[in-house]
Design a protein that fits this description.
Shape: elongated
Strand content: over 45%
Order of helices and strands: HEEEEEEEEEEEEEEE
Radius of gyration: 25 Å
Number of helices: 1
Largest sheet: 8 strands, antiparallel, barrel
Distance between the termini: 38 Å
Strand order of the largest sheet: 1-3-4-6-7-8-9-15
C-alpha cells in the first residue's frame, strides 16, 4: 500500500510539472510543412526547341514542395526564418509530337530552393488556437536537367543542365491549433510570386539550337529568354514544436 501511495505522488508530481501549450504565450518553435498547389510551369522547361513540335504527351501540372525553419513569436506578430524546397514530380519519357509523330522523348527534373524570411500578424490569438496573416521574401535558386532521347536526325540525344536565380515573394492566411503536448498543427493558404527569367546553361552541350557553353542564356525559338514560372496559389499543412 505504501509503495502505491509513493508511486501516485511521483506520477502526480510529473503530471503537474508537464507544460501545457498556450499559443498566446509561446515564444519559440521549430517547424516543417508540406505544400501543394497550382503551377504555371507546364512544358516551359523543355518546349520551343524545334519548330515542328506542336504538342507534348505530358506536362508539369501540380506544384509540390516543403519548408522547415524557426518561428519567434511576440504578442502581436511573429518572425519566420526558413528554407524552402520546391520539387515538382519528375517527368519521364514525355513525347514531343509533330502532330502524331514523335520527334524525341524528354526526362525533365526541376528543383528550386530558397532561404526565406517572413512575418506573421496575429488576427485572433487564443491559448489553443490562432489565425494570422503571413508574408515572406526569399532568394530562390533553380536547377534543371532535361534529358533528350530517341531524337530523330539531324539532331542527336543530349542532356541539358541549367541553373538560375530569382527573388521570391508571397503571403496568405494561416491557422494554428494545439495538437499534442507542445506540438501545434498549422494550415496555410496563400499565393507565391516566383519567376525565373534569366536561366543559364551550367555545362557545355550541343542542343537543338546548336552548341552552347556554360553561362549562355536559355532562349526560345524567337531568341527571347525562356521563363520558368513557379507562381501560383498554394496550400500547406505542417507542425510546430514549441520549446
Amino acid at each position: 500500500m505504501k509503495a502505491k501511495i509513493i508511486s501516485f505522488i511521483v506520477f502526480a508530481g510529473l503530471w503537474t510539472q508537464a507544460r501545457v501549450l498556450n499559443l498566446s504565450e509561446e515564444k519559440f518553435a521549430s517547424y516543417f510543412s508540406l505544400e501543394s498547389g497550382s503551377s504555371f510551369i507546364k512544358t516551359s522547361p523543355f518546349d520551343e526547341n524545334i519548330a515542328s513540335v506542336n504538342s507534348y504527351s505530358s506536362e508539369y501540372k501540380v506544384g509540390l514542395g516543403g519548408e522547415f525553419g524557426f518561428v519567434y513569436s511576440t504578442p502581436y506578430m511573429a518572425w519566420r526564418f526558413s528554407f524552402e524546397i520546391l520539387k515538382p514530380a519528375k517527368l519521364s519519357e514525355v513525347e514531343a509530337l509533330a502532330d502524331s509523330s514523335v520527334q524525341y522523348k524528354i526526362d525533365s527534373d526541376v528543383t528550386a530552393v530558397a532561404p526565406k524570411v517572413g512575418f506573421e500578424v496575429h488576427l485572433n490569438r487564443k491559448p489553443n488556437y490562432r489565425f494570422y496573416l503571413f508574408g515572406y521574401y526569399g532568394s530562390s535558386n533553380l536547377t534543371m536537367t532535361n534529358t533528350y532521347s530517341q531524337v530523330i536526325a539531324p539532331h542527336s540525344d543530349h542532356v541539358v543542365e541549367l541553373k538560375g536565380s530569382s527573388s521570391e515573394t508571397g503571403g496568405g492566411i494561416g491557422f494554428e491549433t494545439a495538437f499534442v503536448d507542445t506540438t501545434a498543427f498549422i494550415f496555410e493558404i496563400g499565393y507565391r510570386n516566383l519567376i525565373f527569367k534569366d536561366i543559364k546553361f551550367s555545362k557545355d552541350v550541343v542542343t537543338f539550337q546548336g552548341a552552347k557553353t556554360a553561362g549562355d542564356t536559355l532562349t526560345n525559338l524567337s531568341g527571347e529568354n525562356r521563363n520558368i514560372n513557379f507562381s501560383g496559389y498554394t496550400a500547406s499543412i505542417g507542425f510546430r514544436f514549441w520549446l
